[in-house]
Amino acid sequence: MSHALIKTVLFDLDGTLADTAPDLADALNHVLHQHQCPELSLETIRPWVSHGGQIMLQNAFQIEPDDPQLETLRQEFLNFYQANIARKTNLFPGMNEVLAGIEQRGFNWGVVTNKPSWLTDPLMTALQLDKRSICTISGDTLTQRKPHPAPLLHACQLAGSQAEQCVYVGDAERDITAGKSANMKTLLALFGYLGENDVPERWQADTMIQQPLEILPWLDKHNEQVT
After folding, report:
1. Which of 3, 7, 148, 156 is most buried, with most CB under 10 Å away?
2. CB 24 within 8 A of CB 80
3. Domain that residue 198 falls in
4. Total structural domains in the chain?
C-alpha cells in the first residue's frame, strides 16, 4: 500500500457517522408492541443495529431467517422507521466538528452504507448532510454491498481520489474488510454498535478510535508523515 496523502474520509452511516439506534429501536419496539410482545431496552437492541433490520427482528422475535412471518414483520418495521427516521437520530458527539475540520483542511468526505437509498437519502437530508457529502453510496447503489470493496471504490471515483488517498471509518467487521480490500486506510469506531461477541482487535484496522474527535489528529499525523 502506497503512502499517499489522504484527501477523502469515507464514513459508514449507522453507528459511525450517526447514532441511529434510538430510532431503529423505536421501530423495533413498535412492531413488538403490535404483536403483543414485551418491548426491549435500547441497550439490548443497540448491538444488533449494525446487522440491519432483518437480524434485529430475528433476534427480537427469536425466529429463523426462513420464518414465514418475517417478511410481514420487516414491512411493519420499515414502514414505521421510514415515517420516523430522524426523530432521535443525531450525529455522534464531536462528529460535526470532524466534518467541519475535514472541509476546513480542503478535503472532502462521503458516506458508504449498506442501508438502502430510500432510507439513506431522507436521513442524510434530515441531518442536513446531503449537500455537504461529496458522495452517498447506499446498499442498493451497486449490485455489490460491503464487505465487497466495490461501493468504496465507487465512492473514491465520485470524490475524485485514488483509493490510497481515502480512509474508511466504520464500526463493523465488514467495514474494515471492505476498506482493506479496497486498499484504503481503515479506522474502527469503537463508539459504534459492537456486540459482546465482537473481537475488533482481530479485524486489523489501521487504528481503533474511542470517539470521533480522534479522526482529525490521526489524519494530520498521517499526512505529515507522507509529506
Report:
1. 156
2. no
3. 8-19+90-226
4. 2
